[in-house]
C-alpha cells in the first residue's frame, strides 16, 4: 500500500494530534496517580493456569504467530536491500522475544533509540502498564500474606505470571519496536506491516464471501432506494425524497436493512487471523453459512429472539440486544428527521462510531453496515476507528482500508480467489460508493494510540480524555470483536451473570453496543443457568468463535 494513499485517510494534522494525546496517556500511566485506573474486580485471565485458553495462547499460539511472521519477513527478501541489515536485526530481536516467551521469562522494558513520537508513546504506555500490573500484583500478594499470616512466593512479572491481555499486547508492541529500530535510517522497514502477507492471503480466501455480502447489501440498499420509500442521505438524487408511503412500511424497511447489517458485522468477526497460524486455513464461506447467519432450532444460546421484520431467531447469539439497538437507531433516525423538519438541514449532525477490529472480510462487512447506516437515515456520518500500528495480526490499519478499497475497485477479483468476474461487480459498485462516502466526509478515519495499549476501556476517561470526549458526542458506538470486548470488561473472571453495564466499570461515553464472537473466556450478561447449558452443549463455547453476542449499554 502506497504511503501517500494511506496518509490520505488520516491527515497529518490529525496524526500529530493523536501523538500529542498519546504522550499525555503515557505520562498519565507513569505518573503514579492511579485514580481513574481501577484494577479488575476479579482475577484477570492469566496463562499460569495449565489447560486454560490463555495458557495455550501464550505457550503455543503466540509463538506460532511469531514464527509465521518471521517466515514471511525472510520470504520477502530484505537481504541486499537498504533495509536488509535492519531487517536481520529485527528478526534477531523477534527470535529472542519468542525464546523469552517460551521460557516464561520476565518482560523487559521496551525501548527504541531515536524512536518517533508515536512509537515512543506506545512503548512507554506498554511499559507503564507492565509496571502497574506488577506493582498491583505484588501489593495484592502482600495483603494476602498479611491476612493469612505469611507464606507464598514473590509475584512473577513473566509471560505466564502477568495478565494475558497485558502480555499479548506487549508482544505486538515489542514487534513494533523491533521493526522501528532502524528509525529514519530505514524508513521502508519502519513503515512495513510484518503481517501484510497473511492479511493478503486471508482476503483472497474470503473474496467469495465478500461477493455474497456485496450482493446482499446491494439488495438492501436498493430496497431503501425504492421509490416507495423515503430516501436516506446518500440517495438524494434518486427522486425518492418526499415519496408518500405509510410510515410503518418505511420503518420496517429500515429496520430490516439495519438488522441485516448488524448480523453481517457480527459474523464478519469470524475472519480473525490472530487465531490462525496459517492464513490459508481461513474458510471465508463460513461467514455466510446458514447456521451462523441464523435459523431455528433449540439451543443453549437462547439469548433472545432478535426476530421480527425478516430477522430470524439466532440460535448462536447467546446475548441478543438487537431489539434495543434497533430501537436506538430508530431514535437517531427520528432525531435527524426532527432536525430536518425544523430547518436543521443536515439532520443535526448525527454520528455513529465503529471501533473496528479485523481487516479484510470483517472490515468489508463493517463497511456494509456503515453504508446501510447512512442510507437508512440513522446517521449523517460514520466515524471509523482503526489501529495506528500493526496489531493482533489482522487489525485494521489505514493502509488496510485503502488496500481493501483498491482491491474491490478492480475489474476482477484478486488472483486466486474463487469468484467470477461477474460475481465481483457488486463488490466494485460498493467500492465506488464507499470512495464517495470518504471523499464527501460521510465516513471519517481516526487511529488513536489508546487502541494499541493494554489499557482497559474503563481507564479511557482518565488516560485518554481526548478520545473519551470525542466518543461522548456519538449517537452510538459500535465496538467490534473479541479484543474490544476483553478491554470493555477488563478481561477478568466476572461471574457470567454479571450485568454488562456493571462489567464496564463506569465506561460509557455514549450509547454503545459490542458485536463479538466469543474467542476468550470472558462473558457477562448471561441468564442464570445459561453458561451451564452452554457447557453441556459445547465445552469450548467461550473460545471457538461459534457463538456470538450483540450486547448493548444504551
UniProtKB/TrEMBL annotation:
GO terms for molecular function: fructose 6-phosphate aldolase activity; fructose-1-phosphatase activity; metal ion binding. Residues 31-54 are annotated as: Disordered. Subfamily III proteins have a conserved RTxK motif about 40-50 residues from the C-terminus; the threonine may be replaced by serine or cysteine. Belongs to the damage-control phosphatase family. Sugar phosphate phosphatase III subfamily. Keywords: Hydrolase, Manganese, Metal-binding. Residues 58-532 form the Damage-control phosphatase ARMT1-like metal-binding domain. The keyword Protein biosynthesis does not apply. It catalyses: beta-D-fructose 1-phosphate + H2O = D-fructose + phosphate; beta-D-fructose 6-phosphate = dihydroxyacetone + D-glyceraldehyde 3-phosphate. Pfam families: ARMT1-like_dom. GO terms for cellular component: nucleus. Its EC number is 3.1.3.-. Its cofactor is Mn(2+); Ni(2+). PANTHER family: DAMAGE-CONTROL PHOSPHATASE ARMT1 (PTHR12260:SF6). Metal-dependent phosphatase that shows phosphatase activity against several substrates, including fructose-1-phosphate and fructose-6-phosphate. Its preference for fructose-1-phosphate, a strong glycating agent that causes DNA damage rather than a canonical yeast metabolite, suggests a damage-control function in hexose phosphate metabolism. The keyword Metal-binding applies. GO terms for biological process: DNA damage response. InterPro entries: ARMT-1-like_metal-bd_sf (IPR036075), ARMT1 (IPR039763), ARMT1-like_metal-bd (IPR002791). This is Sugar phosphate phosphatase.
Amino acid at each position: 500500500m502506497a504511503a501517500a494513499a494511506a496518509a490520505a485517510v488520516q491527515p497529518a494534522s490529525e496524526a500529530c494530534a493523536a501523538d500529542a494525546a498519546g504522550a499525555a496517556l503515557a505520562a498519565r500511566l507513569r505518573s503514579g496517580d492511579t485514580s481513574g485506573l481501577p484494577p479488575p474486580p476479579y482475577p484477570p485471565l492469566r496463562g499460569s493456569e495449565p489447560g486454560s485458553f490463555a495458557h495455550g495462547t501464550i505457550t503455543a499460539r503466540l509463538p506460532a504467530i511469531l514464527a509465521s511472521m518471521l517466515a514471511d519477513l525472510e520470504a520477502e527478501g530484505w537481504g541486499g536491500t537498504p533495509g536488509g541489515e535492519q531487517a536481520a536485526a529485527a528478526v534477531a530481536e523477534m527470535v529472542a522475544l519468542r525464546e523469552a516467551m517460551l521460557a516464561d521469562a520476565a518482560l523487559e522494558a521496551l525501548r527504541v533509540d531515536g524512536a518517533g513520537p508515536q512509537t515512543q508513546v506506545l512503548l512507554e504506555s506498554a511499559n507503564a502498564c507492565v509496571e502497574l500490573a506488577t506493582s498491583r500484583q505484588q501489593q495484592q500478594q502482600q495483603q494476602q500474606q498479611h491476612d493469612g499470616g505469611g507464606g507464598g512466593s514473590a509475584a512473577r512479572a513473566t509471560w505466564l505470571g502477568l495478565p494475558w491481555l497485558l502480555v499479548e499486547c506487549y508482544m505486538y508492541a515489542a514487534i513494533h519496536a523491533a521493526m522501528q529500530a532502524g528509525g529514519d535510517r530505514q524508513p521502508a522497514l519502519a513503515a512495513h506491516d510484518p503481517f501484510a502477507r497473511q492479511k493478503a492471503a486471508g482476503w483472497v480466501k474470503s473474496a467469495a464471501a465478500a461477493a455474497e455480502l456485496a450482493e446482499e447489501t446491494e439488495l438492501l440498499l436498493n430496497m431503501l432506494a425504492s421509490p416507495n420509500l423515503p430516501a436516506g442521505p446518500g440517495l438524494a438524487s434518486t427522486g425518492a425524497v418526499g415519496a408518500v408511503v405509510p410510515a410503518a412500511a418505511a420503518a420496517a424497511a429500515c429496520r430490516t436493512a439495519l438488522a441485516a447489517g448488524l448480523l453481517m458485522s457480527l459474523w464478519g468477526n469470524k475472519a480473525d487471523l490472530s487465531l490462525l497460524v496459517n492464513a490459508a486455513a481461513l474458510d471465508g464461506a463460513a461467514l455466510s453459512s446458514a447456521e451462523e447467519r441464523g435459523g431455528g432450532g433449540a439451543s443453549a444460546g437462547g439469548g433472545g429472539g432478535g426476530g421480527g421484520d425478516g430477522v430470524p431467531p439466532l440460535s448462536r447469539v447467546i446475548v441478543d440486544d438487537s431489539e434495543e439497538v434497533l430501537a436506538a437507531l430508530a431514535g437517531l433516525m427520528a432525531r435527524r428527521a426532527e432536525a430536518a423538519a425544523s430547518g436543521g438541514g443536515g439532520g443535526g449532525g448525527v454520528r455513529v462510531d465503529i471501533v473496528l477490529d479485523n481487516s479484510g472480510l470483517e472490515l468489508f462487512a463493517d463497511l456494509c453496515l456503515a453504508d446501510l447506516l447512512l442510507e437508512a437515515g440513522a446517521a449523517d456520518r460514520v466515524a471509523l476507528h482503526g489501529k495506528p500500528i500493526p496489531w493482533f495480526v489482522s487489525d485494521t490499519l489505514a493502509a488496510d482500508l485503502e488496500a481493501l478499497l483498491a482491491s474491490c475497485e478492480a475489474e476482477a477479483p484478486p488472483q486466486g480467489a474463487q469468484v467470477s468476474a461477474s460475481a465481483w461487480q457488486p463488490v466494485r459498485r460498493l467500492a465506488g460508493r464507499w470512495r464517495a462516502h470518504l471523499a464527501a466526509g460521510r465516513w471519517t478515519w481516526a487511529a488513536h494510540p489508546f487502541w494499541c495499549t493494554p489499557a482497559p476501556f474503563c481507564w479511557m476517561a482518565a488516560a485518554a480524555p481526548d478520545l473519551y470526549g470525542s466518543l461522548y458526542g456519538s449517537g452510538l458506538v459500535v465496538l467490534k470483536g473479541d479484543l474490544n470486548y476483553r478491554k470493555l470488561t477488563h478481561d477478568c473472571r466476572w461471574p457470567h451473570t454479571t450485568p454488562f453495564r456493571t462489567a464496564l466499570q463506569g465506561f460509557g461515553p455514549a450509547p454503545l453496543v459490542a458485536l463479538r464472537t466469543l474467542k476468550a473466556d470472558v462473558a457477562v450478561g448471561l441468564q442464570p443457568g445459561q453458561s451451564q447449558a452452554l457447557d453441556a452443549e459445547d465445552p469450548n463455547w467461550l473460545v471457538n468463535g461459534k457463538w456470538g453476542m450483540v450486547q448493548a449499554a444504551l
